[in-house]
Amino acid sequence: MDCRRSGDVPLYFDGELDPAATREFERHLDDCDECRATLVGLDALRRDVRAAMPRVGAPAALRERLLALAAPARRRHWPAIAAAAAVAFAVGAVATSVWRTREATRDALARDLFASHWRSLAATSPVDVVSSDRHTVKPWFAGKVAQAPLVRDFAADGYALVGGRVDYVGDARVPVLVYRHGQHLIDVFVLGDADAAAVAPTSRRGYTLDPLVLGHQPAAVVSDLDAEELARFAAQLAAAEP
Amino acid sequence: MPVLSWKDAATPGHGAGPPGDDRAAGIGELALRHLDAAYNLGRWLLGNEQDAADAVHDAFLRATASGGSRVDGNPRAWWLAIVRNCCLARLAVHGRERRNVALDQVAAEHGRDAADAVVPPLDEPIEERLEHEQRRALVRHHLARLPPEFREVLLLRELEALSYREIADVLDLPIGTVMSRLARGRAALQKAINPAANEVDDGL
Ligand SMILES: [Zn+2]
């Protein structure tokens, strides 16, 4: 209990240090047994608490009830929400809000995909696993996502595989393959069928979102490629074989 | 040379919602994105699942009713603060004494669920399974006995992975108070569940 940096351990552990301070403190950790032991103790405690109090997902019924309320809520005022809720419960007419829900789903999905791409551009590295060849990328996804993506490198055609990461789309963890074409970074999100069905071509702030297929897997691509470059890339992906 | 790397030790956020642009989200969408966090908060404040679901429903209506009057702070913290207030309002109606038993009830439920869900079936020897369940029961026992103000901060941090700022917003406390309660809660729980061990564990 002598290290003068011991007070920084919880800040580091809880992610409260800024990136520069984090790196600096990690150098300290390399040399300080005491702070490292404190960190291990904090981590053990967190594991104990999580094992003792497992979180559960909210019940589907609750989610659906709120979803039915959420869509109209965007445009109406409070008395209308209450009225709509009363009606929806009275007649069980969840269906009345289905189209709005679908529209909301599509917007939310697009927002998640663009946000993921922009976040990765702003990050130190756009990938969590670097591709030395595709054999390093594919196994990396195993166990991290429900379905491992098809991993192909198109470097010979000008679209080099940079690597991969996992990101959230809605509540799902999805694999993202990252390609480079000249100065452009391209994200390919491999999606489940339900999400894939909700992808519509969209553009925001100079970036585009387009549905496509990667071999037989439904996917979406976010990039700032022009239409011609994108079409060539999409053709490569579609032709990829397992 | 450490056997356990500190890089392994720093586990990423556990209960954090999927990252997304909360600020751009509508209120309903924001609430749905953090529905699991809201529901779990309700569960351990109220002690049963039905009350938790009802409280989250109340909170949802209250949040959407507030229209655009969103505060400048963190949106997730804003939403969870409403959930917490709805839970406390329910407790006030149903009687104060329930608050004290809430965690024990959740713990009892957890005990059953954990035995089924968390422990891998069959391939783990029975003695180890018992040992793990005993450990979980011990942690729950001492968690339930922590002063409530420490417990709340600890659970928001360790289970819901809220930042200090978010916890301060949810509980309407200064951030320094959050930090000291977290430190004291952790120290107390560590001491209670590892009575034999010294603070420094160099066995790993
Ligand atoms: Zn130190």
Automatic annotation (TrEMBL), chain A:
<keyword id="KW-0812">Transmembrane</keyword>
<dbReference type="Pfam" id="PF13490">
    <property type="entry name" value="zf-HC2"/>
</dbReference>
<dbReference type="InterPro" id="IPR027383">
    <property type="entry name" value="Znf_put"/>
</dbReference>
<feature type="domain" description="Putative zinc-finger">
    <location>
        <begin position="9"/>
        <end position="36"/>
    </location>
</feature>
<feature type="transmembrane region" description="Helical">
    <location>
        <begin position="78"/>
        <end position="99"/>
    </location>
</feature>
<protein>
    <submittedName>
        <fullName>Anti-sigma factor RsiW</fullName>
    </submittedName>
</protein>
<dbReference type="InterPro" id="IPR041916">
    <property type="entry name" value="Anti_sigma_zinc_sf"/>
</dbReference>
<keyword id="KW-0472">Membrane</keyword>
<keyword id="KW-1133">Transmembrane helix</keyword>
TrEMBL record, chain B:
<dbReference type="InterPro" id="IPR014284">
    <property type="entry name" value="RNA_pol_sigma-70_dom"/>
</dbReference>
<keyword id="KW-0731">Sigma factor</keyword>
<dbReference type="InterPro" id="IPR039425">
    <property type="entry name" value="RNA_pol_sigma-70-like"/>
</dbReference>
<keyword id="KW-0804">Transcription</keyword>
<dbReference type="InterPro" id="IPR007627">
    <property type="entry name" value="RNA_pol_sigma70_r2"/>
</dbReference>
<dbReference type="InterPro" id="IPR036388">
    <property type="entry name" value="WH-like_DNA-bd_sf"/>
</dbReference>
<dbReference type="InterPro" id="IPR013249">
    <property type="entry name" value="RNA_pol_sigma70_r4_t2"/>
</dbReference>
<dbReference type="InterPro" id="IPR013324">
    <property type="entry name" value="RNA_pol_sigma_r3/r4-like"/>
</dbReference>
<feature type="domain" description="RNA polymerase sigma-70 region 2">
    <location>
        <begin position="32"/>
        <end position="95"/>
    </location>
</feature>
<dbReference type="GO" id="GO:0016987">
    <property type="term" value="F:sigma factor activity"/>
</dbReference>
<keyword id="KW-0805">Transcription regulation</keyword>
<dbReference type="InterPro" id="IPR013325">
    <property type="entry name" value="RNA_pol_sigma_r2"/>
</dbReference>
<dbReference type="Pfam" id="PF04542">
    <property type="entry name" value="Sigma70_r2"/>
</dbReference>
<dbReference type="Pfam" id="PF08281">
    <property type="entry name" value="Sigma70_r4_2"/>
</dbReference>
<dbReference type="GO" id="GO:0003677">
    <property type="term" value="F:DNA binding"/>
</dbReference>
<feature type="domain" description="RNA polymerase sigma factor 70 region 4 type 2">
    <location>
        <begin position="140"/>
        <end position="189"/>
    </location>
</feature>
<protein>
    <submittedName>
        <fullName>RNA polymerase sigma-70 factor (ECF subfamily)</fullName>
    </submittedName>
</protein>
<feature type="region of interest" description="Disordered">
    <location>
        <begin position="1"/>
        <end position="22"/>
    </location>
</feature>
<comment type="similarity">
    <text>Belongs to the sigma-70 factor family. ECF subfamily.</text>
</comment>
<dbReference type="GO" id="GO:0006352">
    <property type="term" value="P:DNA-templated transcription initiation"/>
</dbReference>
